[in-house]
Amino acid sequence: MTPRISEAEWEIMKVLWKQSPLAAQEIIERLESRSDWKPKTVKALIGRLVQKKAVRYETAGKMYLYSPACTEEECRRQERQSFLQRIYDGAAKPMLVHFLEDESLSPSDIEELRRLLDGKRS
């Protein structure tokens, strides 16, 4: 089963999905431009992800190198299913209706959605 990860943990995962394995210091450096987290915070988040089995590590001398243990798509699927269950009681239709009513779509977006829906009929 794919673990549920927090919003902050997603930031660590994005770094690791882009490139891995990485040492904690390398993750910290990559996050510097988009967060003001202290190194201790990043290391705590990495530790939580290891506990959740979303991240695995290997040792290289005295250094730990971290890699994702699940794919980005697996985590996205878990989040979609969790969101759908929590907010819409698992019903996809009301969620889709709300999104379609609230979002502006280009003609090409609408055409792509039509193709997807037509494919669901088959």
Describe the protein's architecture and organization.
By secondary structure, the protein is mainly alpha-helical. Strands 1-3-2 form a three-stranded antiparallel beta sheet. The radius of gyration is 19 Å and the shape is elongated. The model has no long low-confidence stretch (mean pLDDT 94).
Key words describing this protein structure:
122 residues, mainly alpha, 11% strand, elongated
User: Largest beta sheet: what is the strand line-up?
Assistant: 1-3-2
The helix-and-strand class reads mainly alpha
Instruction: Give the strand tally.
Output: 3
State the end-to-end CA separation: 30 Å
Report the total helices: 6
The multimeric state of the shown protein is: single chain
- Main pleated sheet: 3 strands, antiparallel
Rg over alpha carbons: 19 Å
Provide the low-confidence segments as ranges: none
| Gross geometry | elongated
Mean pLDDT: 94
Q: What order do the SSEs take from the amino end to the carboxyl end, as H and E?
A: HEHHEEHHH
Give the percentage of residues in beta strands: 5-15%
| Proportion of residues in helical segments | 55-70%
